[in-house]
Structure formats: structure tokens, C-alpha cells
Write a structure and sequence with these properties.
It holds the Pfam family Polysacc_synt. The chain has 17 helices and no strands. It is mostly helical. The longest helix has 59 residues. The two termini are 31 Å apart.
Length: 408
């Protein structure tokens, strides 16, 4: 029995690591390719649009990767309970999709900064449809992460294939989100149908009243997942609202590179979360692993940042390259800070059902980032956004550490 659990743990870690390696490898290769084809300015416009739609995607997922994963991990062998949870999530997602899709199109049409690129934003809105049938939360809950890897790989390969075949000139930046949406939709729909058959899911929608009750009950989990998972896209969005498209591109590239260095922490957090929920004795050893690895990765990012940036990206001027290197250096503490949040917040406070407390911490950190960005981006157009991101992460990790210790 123990050997089976160890094997499953290793399998889940390997699956998520493969997923992230493939995703980041292709994404990091795609960035310089797109800059070469469409230019840094158009890449910044595209990144700005995607930052908005990805925020909506995270709202659509309404904390399922926390609250639903926690419930599925405890009841994955109960067919009736699994069926109930599946239908609750599907009903809530359909309701949120209807509201969010109309809202997104309305914003894109009414606000001048968006309406001048309406075709781009319309294609970006299709990403919401692509994510509607995503079952990442389901596979995490039943601890079958290998399926997430397979599905995401299919989606990414479709996206990359369409990019290579059809993106050749600057004006093509408009249709990049369409290809991303197609990749997501095809892979998500096939996996959705497969899950229905494999796990004998009988679809039955809950009432509108029950949907509202669900939204209210799981609001704290929603906040706890939304704000941290969208902090990167949100700071890119703020950079676009307050700065120039080329600076948006630099900010987004910096955030993506930071995500690459934070990959191991993200993987281990997702694997450890259901594990710690089932066995509290695992809290301390998993915390130690996360913190040590996070510190080591941050040091690596600082030391290797310039070398990696120069060998990965090519800009028209040396000044732009120096700006990119500076952004990477500023963001280098993030992997360690993310590990602190994971070990003391997600796998600490949340596993003790301190959802409301962690939600308040998350809101404070997010408001800190917003206020910092409003103050710093106009003063420092190139580095203001990433400085705000760093300040917010410091606040987030410090409060997570303090309140777990205070509640132990």
C-alpha cells in the first residue's frame, strides 16, 4: 500500500514536471519567434489582450483547483460524490461563462483602448470557450496528473503548429489568440467526453439558486486562487494601461521567465496539496522541501539571469537588452517568495481550513501590488510594474508566514 502511494506521488510529480517542461520550453521558444515575426510593439499589444482574457479565464475557474480538489481528494472513491461534485462545477462554470463572455465582449467594444483592436479581443474571447470544458481540477482531485500533461501537450502542439503555418508578418498578431483558443477547445472537448465515459459521469445541472449558494460558499477559495494566479497577468495588464506596448512586452517576458524558474514550486505545491489534506503529518517535510528548493532556484535565477537572457532573446538595441536583464534581476527573489506562500499559505493555512484568513492576506497583497503599480509605473515605465510585483510578493509571503505561526 505504501509502495503504491509512493509510486503515485512520483508519477504525479513526473507528470506535472513533464507538463511544465513542455509548456515552458515551447513558450520560451515561441516568444523570440513571435517577436521576430510581428515585432516587439505588436507582441506587446497581443500580450496586453491575453492578460485581460486570462484574468477572465481565472474567474471562470472560480477556485476549483483549491476547493474542488480538496473535496475530490477526500471522496475520489465515492462515485455518487464524484458525480455530484462534477455537476456542481459544470453548472457553475456554464453560468459564469455566460456572464463573463458577454462582459468581455462589452468591455472590448466600449472601451477605446480595447475597441481599436476589437478583432484581436474578439479572437481572445474564444479562449474562454476553449477553457469551458477544461477538467484540470478533476484530474488534480483524483490525483491523475498524467492526463493533464497529455491534454495540455495536445493543446500546445495544435497551437504551435498553427502559429508556424500562419504567422509570417506583423499584421498576423491579431489571429494568434484564435489559434490558442482552437488548441484549448479541441483538447479540452475530447478529454471532457472521455471523462464522462471513463468515470460514468451522469450530467445533471443544479438549480440557479444552488449555483448562487455555491458561488457564495466557495468565494474564499475563489479569491485565494484568483489573485495569486492572476498577479502575473494583472501586472502585465497594468503595465499596458499605464505604459507603452514595448514595455508591456518586456514585463510579460520577465513574468514568463520567472514562471519558468517557479515551475518546480508550482508542481510540488499541486502534488503536495491533496497529500497534506489527507495527512497533516506531511506538512512539515513538504514545507522544508519547498523552502530549500525555492531559495536555491532564486539564487540560480539571479546568477544565470543575464546569461540566459542574452542567449534567449535578441533586441534591436543593447539598451533594450539591458532593460530586460534588469527586469530579470529584480524578479529573481520571486521563486523563494512563492515557496514561502506555498508552504505557509496554500499547504499551511488552507489545509487548516483558514480560507477566510488566507483570503484577506491575498487581498492585502493584491491591493499592495495595485497601489504600487499606480505609483511606480508612471515614475519608472520600464521597471515599475515588476517592482510592484516583487513588493506584493514580499507582503504576501511575510503575512502567510506570520499568520500560520500565529495560528499554530
Amino acid at each position: 500500500m505504501i509502495n503504491k502511494k509512493v509510486f503515485q506521488l512520483i508519477e504525479n510529480i513526473s507528470a506535472l514536471f513533464s507538463l511544465k517542461a513542455i509548456d515552458l520550453g515551447l513558450s520560451l521558444w515561441l516568444i523570440p519567434y513571435l517577436i521576430l515575426k510581428i515585432g516587439l510593439h505588436h507582441y506587446g499589444v497581443y500580450a496586453f489582450a491575453m492578460s485581460l482574457v486570462l484574468f477572465f479565464v481565472n474567474v471562470l475557474n472560480y477556485g476549483f483547483n483549491l476547493s474542488t480538489v480538496r473535496e475530490l481528494a477526500k471522496h475520489k472513491d465515492d462515485q455518487i460524490k464524484v458525480n455530484t461534485i462534477f455537476n456542481e462545477v459544470l453548472s457553475v462554470k456554464l453560468f459564469l461563462f455566460g456572464v463573463l463572455y458577454i462582459l468581455f465582449l462589452g468591455i472590448s467594444f466600449i472601451i477605446p483602448k480595447f475597441s481599436e483592436h476589437f478583432n484581436l479581443y474578439f479572437f481572445a474571447s474564444l479562449v474562454l470557450i476553449g477553457d469551458l470544458f477544461s477538467l484540470r481540477w478533476f484530474f488534480m482531485g483524483i490525483e491523475k496528473m498524467k492526463f493533464i500533461t497529455i491534454i495540455h501537450l495536445c493543446s500546445t502542439l495544435v497551437f504551435i503548429g498553427l502559429i508556424l503555418l500562419n504567422i509570417s508578418k506583423p499584421s498576423d498578431y491579431i489571429i494568434i489568440p484564435l489559434y490558442e483558443a482552437l488548441g484549448m477547445f479541441i483538447s479540452s472537448l475530447f478529454s471532457f467526453i472521455w471523462v464522462l465515459k471513463k468515470y460514468n459521469i451522469q450530467i445533471g445541472f443544479i438549480s440557479f439558486k444552488e449555483v448562487l449558494i455555491y458561488l457564495k460558499t466557495h468565494f474564499n477559495s475563489f479569491i485565494n486562487l484568483l489573485l495569486p494566479s492572476t498577479s502575473g497577468v494583472f501586472i502585465v495588464f497594468l503595465s499596458g494601461m499605464l505604459g507603452l506596448p514595448s514595455f508591456v512586452g518586456l514585463t510579460q517576458i520577465g513574468i514568463k521567465l520567472t514562471a519558468a524558474f517557479t515551475t518546480l514550486n508550482t508542481i510540488l505545491t499541486n502534488v503536495f496539496y491533496p497529500l497534506v489534506n489527507r495527512n497533516n503529518a506531511m506538512e512539515f517535510p513538504t514545507r522544508k522541501i519547498l523552502n530549500i528548493l525555492g531559495f536555491f532556484v532564486s539564487v540560480m535565477m539571479f546568477v544565470l539571469g543575464e546569461f540566459l537572457t542574452r542567449n534567449w532573446l535578441h533586441f534591436e538595441t543593447e539598451a533594450m537588452m539591458q532593460n530586460m536583464i534588469l527586469i530579470v534581476k529584480i524578479l529573481s527573489p520571486i521563486p523563494f517568495l512563492a515557496a514561502i506562500v506555498s508552504s505557509y499559505g496554500v499547504n499551511g493555512l488552507l489545509t487548516k481550513y483558514k480560507d477566510k484568513l488566507f483570503g484577506r492576506i491575498t487581498i492585502i497583497a493584491s491591493m499592495t501590488m495595485l497601489l504600487s503599480a499606480i505609483l511606480l509605473v508612471p515614475l519608472y515605465p520600464i521597471t515599475g510594474a515588476v517592482l510592484s510585483f516583487l513588493i506584493a510578493r514580499i507582503v504576501y509571503s511575510a503575512l502567510s508566514y506570520y499568520f500560520l505561526k500565529a495560528n499554530s
